[in-house]
Amino acid sequence: MNYKYLFNRIFDLSIVLIGISIIVFSMIRLIPGDAVAIMLGANTEITDEAMNELRSRLGLDKSIIEQYFFWVSNIFKGDFGTSIWTGRPVIDEIYLNAWPTIELTVLAVLIGAGLSIPIGCFMAISRGSISEIFARVTAIAGLTIPSFWLGIVSIFLVAKLFPSYIALGYVPFFEDPIENLKRMVLPVFALSLPMIANLSRLIRSAMLDALSQHYIRTAKAKGVSNFSTVYKHALRNALIPYITSVGVSVGYLLGGSIVIEQVFAIPGLGRLVLGAIAERNYPLLQSSILVMTAAFVLVNFIVDILYLFIDPRISKND
Amino acid sequence: MKNDKLLFFSIIVVSLQVLLAICAPILGFQDPYKMIMINRLKDPNLMNLFGTDHLGRDVLARVVYGYQTSLLTSSLAVILSLILGGTIGLLAAYYRGLFDRIIMRFMDILFAFPILLLAIGIIAVIGPSIWGAAIAIAIVYTPIFSRLIRGPALVICETEYVESALSVGASDFRIIFFHILPNLTSVILVQSSLLLSAAILVEASLSFLGLGAQPPIPSLGLSLSEGRNFLLLSPWPAVFSGLAILFLSFGFNLLGDCLRDRLDPRLKGEFENKF
């Protein structure tokens, strides 16, 4: 076990988490306007006392550094603040809206990561100039298709071809698993296509790289079958850059899901963020950005830790 | 050889679209703001080649002027982030030490945010507009450029010509901007093109969410979001604005990709997955 590597990753993780909390905290403080005035908003008979009272209740009368530590210590206690408009704890709203986003992201990762391996291998084996151009152009096209446009077009086509199919909205999985998955098909397809394009291209170039190594020649020379050289010897080595990319893609998927949720009317975190901006619900906005970013950072931390088990160059290097 | 053909093809695709955007006013398109209410949601016909939108505006004109908005916003964003991130990367590579560690650590933290989420957060602070979107994308791309520039700049700092420039007493400014920077041209060209392609998509997403260009400005993302509400009556505004985003982004991505093969094959694979 390489403890130095583990320790370094944990140190990096804490620095990044502290950093993003400071950025998110100061971002919200930079928004012009008085948070208290917004919260009391429509009420015209606001006295100065009422405003001051609310201010001290929220800790806004303290210095900015004290406010930051107040906020962070509350987060450790599980208190992310209260939503301005509903008065409910922010963490409850995030929890309620997180499931559709988690489901969407997990399904898209599974589909994207799963399909890209066979596609990438196929593109690597079938070499030649035509297939090379084809691989490149389809990969770039997949990457540059706006996923929300793909979503809209697919909604239109489905509505025309299968009028009885309901493509919009969300049904919780435990209420009706089949209906839930049926409605997830189009959003997951739209969300995962750029990922498939990106990852299969990566697999292709990593495979081409691996196939030109000496150990492949050795394997071939000692009579290992073609299938086994490609899928056992080359693919295993090609998987290492691939796993990093899957982790990085999660950030893209979280961003992309904000748009896709809007297209397919899915009540997820993206809708929560956009709603919070529209109604100037800053405690909610602040916490949802923090939670989504922290989730992304943690996924990449887990990927880094996975290397300890996958890559002998890291795990054996004490 | 075949790669040169593809490069040539991508240059044509990109320059046609850029020319279309620049020359839009003199090419005799209809007024993209003019609403003819009796002409709403028409299918493509001889008068309106791409049909009309829900306010009776010519979709072809909206798309062509939308190119202007899209290109203006995203290239402004890429230029700003190149200046900011490039300078940070150069200074970090040249001075190294504590300055390098602190500033690159800060860039890592910015890099840790999902791109679109950070852009949305920044727009929540500065307000939704074309300029807001450009600034947000610029900030989001700054850490990417700083990392992309710092790596190769570190290598160049070790070369003999930098050492000899130092020994004849050239100033830091002169070494950084006249000896190191020119050697990074190919990196900058390739990555600007690739990031521009991604910025076009981010800008379209932001406008689509109502956080970029505001109506009645012709914007591809905005037209797509407006067209979505009338999809079953007439899909054409949504279809054509989406295709326009695709072609624009595709052109720059292919260009960057071919330029990379041509100028610096070693760059292959780096940052491919951060889009």
Outline of chain B: elongated
Number of helices of chain A: 13
Q: Which strand-content bin applies to the residues of chain A?
A: under 5%
Distance between the termini of chain B: 29 Å
What gyration radius of chain A follows from the Cα positions, in whole Å?
A: 24 Å
Report the sheet with the most strands of chain A, covering strand number, pairing sense and barrel closure: none
Looking at how many chains there are and whether they match, the oligomeric state comes to heterodimer
DSSP helix fraction of chain A: over 70%
* First-residue to last-residue Cα separation of chain A: 8 Å
Estimated share of beta-strand residues of chain B: under 5%
Q: Please tell me the overall pLDDT of chain B.
A: 88
- Structure summary, number of beta strands of chain B: 0
Question: How would you describe this protein?
Answer:
- The complex is a heterodimer of chains A (318) and B (275).
- With 318 residues, chain A is mainly alpha-helical.
- Chain A contains 13 helices and no strands.
- Chain B is mostly helical and 275 residues long.
- Helices cover 70% and strands 0% of the residues of chain B.
- The interface between A and B is large, with 59 and 49 residues.
At a glance:
Chain A is 78% helix and 0% strand. Chain A contains 13 helices and no strands. With 275 residues, chain B is mainly α.
Which key phrases capture this entry?
heterodimer; A: mainly alpha; 13 helices; B: 275 residues; mainly alpha; disordered C terminus
Write the layout of secondary structure elements.
The complex is a heterodimer of chains A (318) and B (275).
Chain A: H1 3-30, H2 35-40, H3 48-57, H4 64-76, H5 90-125, H6 129-144, H7 147-161, H8 177-211, H9 214-221, H10 226-264, H11 269-278, H12 282-310, H13 312-315
Helix pairs in contact in A: 1-12, 5-8, 5-10, 5-11, 5-12, 6-8, 7-8, 7-10, 8-10, 9-10, 10-11, 10-12, 11-12
Chain B: H1 2-23, H2 59-95, H3 97-111, H4 115-126, H5 130-157, H6 160-167, H7 172-180, H8 185-208, H9 220-228, H10 236-263
